[in-house]
Write a structure and sequence with these properties.
- The complex is a heterodimer.
- By secondary structure, chain A is an all-alpha fold.
- Chain A is built from 15 helices and no strands.
- Helix content of chain A is 71%, strand content 0%.
- In chain A, helix 4 packs across helix 8, helix 9 packs antiparallel against helix 10 and helix 13 crosses helix 15.
- Chain A is globular.
- The two termini of chain A are 39 Å apart.
- By secondary structure, chain B is mainly alpha-helical.
- In chain B, helix 6 runs antiparallel to helix 9, helix 12 runs antiparallel to helix 16 and helix 15 runs antiparallel to helix 16.
- The chains are: A mainly alpha, B mainly alpha.
Amino acid sequence: MKLKATWFDTIIVVIICLISLLVILPFLYIIAVSFSPPGDSMAGNFFIWPKHWTLDAYSYLLNANTFLTSVKNSVIITVMGTVLSLFVSITLAYALSKKFLPGRRVMLLVIFFTMIFHGGMIPNYLVVKNLGLIDSYWAVVLPAASSAFNIMVIRSFFQSLPESLDEAARIDGAGEFRILYSIVLPLSKPIIATFTLFFMVQFWNEFFSAVIYLNDTTRWPIQPLLRQMVAISASNISAEAAVDASLAANLGPNVQNAAILLAMLPIVMVYPFLQKYFAKGAMLGSIKE
Amino acid sequence: MQRALRPKRFHQLWPFYLLAAPGILYFLTFHYIPMTGLILAFKEYSPFKGMMDSPWVGLDNFRQFFGTSDFYMLLKNTLLISLLNLIIYFPFTIFLSLLLNEVRLKVFKRVSQTIVYLPHFLSWVVIYGITISFFGPSGVINHYLGQWFDGSANFLVSNEWFRPLVIFQSIWKDAGWGTIIFLAALAGINPEQYEAAKVDGASRLQSIWHITLPGIKGTIVILLLLRLGSSMDSNFMQIFLMTNSLNLDVSNVFDLFVYHVGLEQFNYSFAITVGMFKSVASLILVLGANYAAKLLGEEGIF
């Protein structure tokens, strides 16, 4: 059968192109503003192609201590969070994938229940506070270490591995940790890659827990700082402590949009790798036992 | 022999319990201990006396909450945002899935999917930043409104524009991502059905109506019920960023109220009361949605 384009196909392609354009245009605009002198963008005499190019915004941000500190904090939080999340999720999911483990049903129920009921914001806050975690990176990292959903998806992947594999290893005298480390994990590269990227995105995007758990703004990651930088122009930030005064004084639209771009840059960079896996990962989540 | 293959005794099983321990400890500490904090809803918390010794007040906090006009405002705002998402965002996602499914040029399909999935991975702060660049007082839209129509609109600080903007943001960020599950369901439809319809002389639109849509009915019902089950949860991060003192009449939702009362006014007991009302109402809605799914002959969520 030969593909012959009909008017129907044409309409579909046109609509999808329009939708895709609607997704892309904001990015192009943000990039254009970030490379333009503030005067140009405020006068609005361009849309996606700057009239005059300048790197001022970037050189300013890359020399601003507050901004650099927040990037550093974000990197620390992302690395800590990703490593911890992978460790906690993989070990628990692996144990729960073993059908012979007594008490498995109870543990699964305990985890599953957290999907439909939770204490809420204030009880969570009180726990973090009572553990003495306020103002430490752990306050952002620990409460988000895993979720019932992650455990379920990773567990169903482990269950899809043939059981005879560990049995053979056991006969050869391998210990359980050895089996996990040298047999199961190498076979689990796709799921580990997927979740590494998911966790990285999650912790890089972390915003609210930093706002409530980190009073010390020198510990702030990039997202809350970005929010203060862009909110100044929306004039609704007055009630809160403003960012570092020297940073605020220099905020033009170019600096704000450059900051938006830098805050999403790591995501846009891992996205191509992420994309290869996530469709499979998302479908895996919908498979039930 | 069997014993050597599958660990049965404790000295063979302890490695698995050891592996499970950090995860279980995590769930107990950060999910179950907070649940014990809910008893503060029935107490008048005093930081000097602590959680245990603060005096009991029974249902006073609940009476106070249901007695205020705040309750109705919060309920209305929360449910209205969910309802608008349900009738605008949700059908749009289905529409987009159907469109992508009809694309016959594989390369074009892959490229457009890559584009529409991307915003899902951006943080709400970035989305908020982009929104300000476009809809802010000195944003590009106001610029052209001024240039072409001699006017401007206070999109971010007005009651009228809050809901449209929030729905638009949701669509922009997540509609593309939401198509994944529908596309998976669509891939499961037997292609022979389309062949047969074609032989019978059905047009493309007719086969969408009679084959494609019925083919994903189950998925639509489940996702619809899941959304109904979570109608008490607004997308808190999004609302938190978009709210300000000038649009609070329409933007104040349960979670936001809990934040203001608990973490800004330090009235823990009352904030926990509101949070608990929300958690319990959500639980009932989720269980109800699951029950409804089963009544409709679908598999249910659990």
